[in-house]
Protein 1
Amino acid sequence: MGGNPLRSYGRGVAWVALALLLALLVAAPLRAADRARLEAFLEVTGFGVALDSIALSASGAPEMLGLSASDFGQGWSTLAEEVFDTGRMREMGLSILEQALDDEMLGHAAEFYASDLGQRLVAVENAAHLHEDDDAKRAEGEALLAAMPQERVEVLRAMNAAVDSAGTGVRAVQEIQVRFLLAASYAGVLESEIDEGMLRALLAEGEDELRESLRASALASAAYTYQSLPIEDLRAYVAALEHPTMARVYELMNAVQYEIMANRFEVLAARMRGLTPAQEL
């Protein structure tokens, strides 16, 4: 049969590497979480790329202050890259997982994501995570949804519900906003200090609107991300995500992502003061 022998060789190497990662993950018990096994976990599940993609969220920081990146001058890009350093964020993620990820969770997730289906999912998820133009991605996702059979739409909805089975997304986004805005206020980035109680009350008023916005955004993102996969694969993914152990894994991974994002936004706010005069919120 035809085909590029170099590409075939590359696929063989990739599967050998994957087999070694899986062997490392399941070979030994997780005591105080072996760092090498956790690093393998980041790779086989794609969670490492998900952590790296947090850096792309830095572009939203000025908007939360009613400003744009250009308001912070030429130093903005350098500052954002320093604060959202991917190596630092992976280290933070590993430190949290080291304390919270147990044997059952690690083994269960690793076994699924090392499967043929799991690796197809990781491939498309990694590609979507690293796509920098969120507006273009959402527009394409919405266009796909408009022409999509309702049956597939419902499977994507079920998938998104399973990814955040604890329903923490809205509260997490609110907490990130609170921590960032308070840090910006304390650092003098804003002209006047923010009252935390008033800020939380204001965010609570918009909670329903935020929930719908996040739901619509997640659905468009799923339509874009999984467009190349058949509905049978998506149904199998939903079943895997709904397993109680996988639900625990995702609850932890979501918490890790949210904590790292909130922490980095706090650090960013503290360092933004040197880039611009005080601004009103």
Note: The chain has one domain: 5-275.
Protein 2
Amino acid sequence: MKIGIITPQGWTGEFDGWDPARAWMRTLDVARLAEALGFESVWLYDHLHTVPKPTEEITFESFTSLTALAMATDRVRLGHVVVCTAFRNPALLAKMMSTMDVISGGRMELGIGAGWKRDEWLAYGYGFPETKERLDTLADHLEIIKRMLGPGRATYAGEHASVEGAINVPKPIQKPLPIMVGGNGPNVTWRLAARHADELNVDGMKPDALRDALPVIRSRCEEIDRDPASLAVSAHVWWEDWAMSSQERVDRLAAYRELGVSRVITMIRETNESDEALATFAEECRTAGATLEASTALGA
């Protein structure tokens, strides 16, 4: 099991009251520290203003930020947990990801979902369709994105999006560029993951709930004659869920590993101020049997 770290970007209020330049330097520093400590990947949320309530505080935009993080790191994989697909035209999104994959030397992963944070949608003028329409849009977008990332020109006519002979050059270095569908919906989201994704990322699902969900996830693959072992399952763990003792953190991580989770993606919120918080979490991950590279961090 590998571990991905979500760097501070302001969405959870971790940069409230900060100078933007100082906040951005901390985002860079945490990404570099995560790499030095041996974590597998670095991630950002795709959100537009703060949670739980919108405030006039820093939230760095994810695509521009992730491109900068690609230039500031050498080894870690990079992605979103997860892109709100309706915020961007899917053909343009695929073009952006392809370019970012080249910039990063083949380290990008496309985490994508239907979106959920209503206040952002409305504030930025997207409206907020019903769940079915958002999921139908995700389905059309995945069809287009896969065509855009693949060889040749892309053509697809869907209800919510279409392309006609669209050219995407350069193509990503990775063939294919990994796609991770995020969400907990067993009827639609997990079927979309089985059809289109390399990985399903369940959101905030604790080990006991995931144990019950795994047979359903496997069945979504079997429905389309896909080998269930070919769909990795990862877990996004919310920062609040680590409010426990160090041993309890180790036990929680070990429980995910024993279930066969491919990776845990999480934020350690104290990293906005503390290098030690991330170093401590790295040791907890190792104790739980997670796979980390050898640390090159000073003092680690």
Note: Residues 32 and 72 are 7 Å apart (CA to CA).
